[in-house]
Structures are given as structure tokens and as C-alpha cells.
From TrEMBL:
InterPro entries: AAA+_ATPase (IPR003593), ABC_Ni/Peptide_Import (IPR050388), ABC_transporter-like_ATP-bd (IPR003439), ABC_transporter-like_CS (IPR017871), Oligopep_ABC_C (IPR013563), P-loop_NTPase (IPR027417). NCBIfam families: oligo_HPY. Residues 298-319 are annotated as: Disordered. Belongs to the ABC transporter superfamily. This is Putative Oligopeptide transport ATP-binding protein OppD. It comes from Streptomyces aurantiacus JA 4570.
Length: 333
């Protein structure tokens, strides 16, 4: 029998009370991640990727959260902060897009990793310092003992991101959530960081959630993909079928926006026209309808259904998709 999932999210809803009314940033979301697998969560800005990851980590302070987040069988929604804090670091860890905002400028990177280890593992000072050097070596930082004594500003962007990965993995968590970990890096360094995460994952059998707005990143590292639109799941599939037969028009749009080898340099990047849906006053029907290219060839009856009835997330296309008119054939590559 297959391993039970390490992370299992069911019917997650995250709502922010705002002066203009409640903002439902994540709605009815569900996904699973097993040990040794990477789930890529992809969607454009504002689709709810970070709100989802922060809900899993228990980092929201002002949001109402309902549904279930189970980590290794333990329910995290409603868990007291003290217990959540124990799980963060030891059982699950997160890395963010901008390492500088997560690193303190006045302490050396070695001190910061050691402190993190001491707090979560309750290790002694000397053991924590040694673990910090070891962790820096594990993420490929040359001369780790010397570099442990340096400050964040003495590291390049890519090396700082390695430091963050070292810190996240220093306490041997089982789940790693990476929220746009390579967005701020140039392409070569981005590839190195993605390879590093993949290698560490293989070595340790980590479950990884890789959050990105870039399907190119997903293609490189993910086993499974969840496409989010307006806080909801649009489509979910293992990576190969998702790229071969994307069923949701939004997923197709994301794929069409990927740069291709035969693109001319002076060609503008393709984007999906229109803007993300309002979460404050969601329209009835499909949230993607105002931007959906599929409606150009839909019948009046189909169009009216799309505009009045919210599609449920289901398996009609072979894998779950939230669309009344999912595509069943592949895209030309
Ligand atoms: N504290 C908050 N109060 C009200 N709305 C919020 C709050 N935090 C996030 N949101 C809203 O939730 C939605 C989802 O935000 P989120 O940060 O998860 O997007 P994202 O998919 O991570 O985007 P990006 O690619 O830009 O990082 C956005 O519309 C955002 O404005
Ligand atoms: S339900 Fe209709 S509007 Fe929404 S994505 Fe599918 S075809 Fe487009
Ligand atoms: Mg984000």
C-alpha cells in the first residue's frame, strides 16, 4: 500500500476580515503531499499561494481558518500556538523569496542557524554551532566554517538563499514549503537552487511544496501540480499529464505564456489578458469567465452556464479540474 500523505489539506478556507467586508483568499482547497514528492502550486499574483502556505505553517494572525490541515496525521487547524511553534522547524519549515528579510543583518549566518537549532532542538551552544557549519556544507557553501562567521550582506543572493535552505533544514524537518524561492535570482543561480532543493529532497525523502508563478519551475522540479485561480483549485494532476493535456483554459493560458525556444528576442512575453477576480465580491459563476478564451467558441447555453454556475472541482477530464468545458486533447508543443 502507498505511504499515507505527510501533508493532507482538506476544504481549507482562509478569510480575512477587512473594513470593506470579508476577503476569502483561499476557498475549498484540498491537496496532499507524500514523502519524497514535490507538489508545485502555481498561479498568478494574488491567487492565494502564499496565504495557503502560511495557513499550513500556522502563521496567520488575523485570518479565520476552517477546514483541515493534517501533518503526519496530526490536525493543525486550531492547534495552540505553542504546539505549532514546536512543529515549525522540527517537522516543517519554510523558505521565502527574499532571504534578506528573513535574516538578521547584525548576526552572523552561523549564529542565526545555530540559534534556530537551539530553539527548536534545545541543543547546547557548541552542538548548535557545529550543526550550523554542517548545514552550510550540506547546501554547498564552500569553506562553511569560515562563512559561518560572516554576515548576510557578505553573501550573494544565491548564497543567501542557500543559507535560508540550510536554516530550514538544520532541524531535519519532513516537510519543506518553498514560497517563490528563486524568483529574485538570475536564471543560472535559480537553476542551481532548484537542483539543490531536488537533491536534498531525494536524499532525505522530504515532502516539498514548491510555490511559484512560473510553470517552467514546476516542470523542472514538481511531481504533481496544483493550479490555483482566485483562491481555488483550477486543476490538479501529475506533472506529465498536466503539461500534455492541460484541461482548464487558465492552465492552457499559463502554458501559452511560457517562453519558447523559437520565440524571437523582440517578441513581447505573452500574458493572459484581463485581471484576477475580486475576492471581496466574487461574481456568481466561474471566476475565470471574464478572461476565458474558451467562451469565444462556446454556445449561448454553455456561456450562460459558465457565467451563472460555479464549476465544481471534479474528475471529468481524467484528473480534477474546475471547468464546465474542460479540454480533452493536448496542446501543440
Ligand atoms: N492580511 C490580508 N488581508 C486581506 N487580504 C489579504 C491579506 N493577505 C493576503 N490577502 C489577499 O489574499 C489574496 C491572495 O494573496 P497571496 O499573497 O496568497 O497571493 P499569491 O498567490 O502568493 O501572490 P504572489 O504571486 O503575488 O505572491 C490577495 O488578493 C491578497 O490581497
Ligand atoms: S467554466 Fe467556463 S468560463 Fe470557466 S474556465 Fe471553464 S470554460 Fe472558461
Ligand atoms: Mg505569494
Amino acid at each position: 500500500m502507498a505511504d499515507p500523505p505527510l501533508l493532507s489539506v482538506t476544504d481549507l478556507k482562509v478569510t480575512f476580515p477587512t473594513p470593506r467586508g470579508p476577503v476569502r483568499a483561499v476557498d475549498s482547497l484540498g491537496f496532499e503531499v507524500r514523502r519524497g514528492r514535490t507538489l508545485g502550486i502555481v498561479g498568478e499574483s494574488g491567487s492565494g499561494k502564499s496565504v495557503t502556505s502560511m495557513a499550513v505553517m500556522g502563521l496567520h494572525t488575523a485570518a479565520e481558518i476552517t477546514g483541515s490541515v493534517r501533518l503526519d496525521g496530526q490536525e493543525l487547524v486550531g492547534l495552540p500556538e505553542r504546539e505549532m511553534n514546536r512543529l515549525r522547524g522540527r517537522k516543517m519549515a519554510m523558505i521565502f523569496q527574499d532571504p534578506l528579510s528573513s535574516l538578521h543583518p547584525y548576526y552572523t549566518v552561523g549564529e542565526q542557524i545555530a540559534e534556530h537549532h537551539r530553539v527548536h532542538i534545545r541543543s547546547g551552544r557548541r552542538a548548535a554551532r557545529e550543526r550550523a557549519v554542517e548545514a552550510l556544507a550540506e547546501v554547498g557553501i564552500p569553506e562553511p566554517r569560515r562563512r559561518a562567521g560572516e554576515y548576510p550582506h557578505q553573501f550573494s543572493g544565491g548564497m543567501r538563499q542557500r543559507v535560508m535552505i540550510a536554516m530550514a533544514l538544520a532541524c531535519e524537518p519532513e516537510l519543506l514549503i518553498a514560497d517563490e524561492p528563486t524568483t529574485a535570482l538570475d536564471v543560472t543561480v535559480q537553476a542551481q537552487i532548484l537542483e539543490l532543493i531536488a537533491a536534498l529532497q531525494q536524499d532525505r525523502g522530504l515532502a516539498v511544496v514548491m510555490i511559484t508563478h512560473d510553470l517552467g519551475v514546476v516542470a523542472r522540479v514538481a511531481h504533481d501540480v496544483l493550479v490555483m485561480y482566485g483562491g481555488r483549485a483550477a486543476e490538479q494532476a501529475p506533472v506529465d499529464p498536466l503539461f500534455a493535456v492541460p484541461s482548464h483554459p487558465y492552465t492552457r493560458g499559463l502554458l501559452d505564456s511560457l517562453p519558447r525556444l523559437d520565440d524571437r528576442d523582440d517578441e513581447p512575453l505573452r500574458t493572459i489578458p484581463g485581471s484576477p477576480p475580486s475576492l471581496l465580491a466574487p461574481a456568481p459563476g466561474c471566476a475565470f469567465a471574464p478572461r476565458c478564451p474558451r467562451l469565444a467558441t462556446a454556445t449561448d447555453q454553455e456561456r450562460s452556464r459558465c457565467e451563472s454556475e460555479r464549476p465544481s472541482f471534479g474528475g471529468a477530464a481524467g484528473h480534477p479540474v474546475a471547468c464546465h468545458l474542460p479540454a480533452h486533447e493536448g496542446v501543440a508543443s
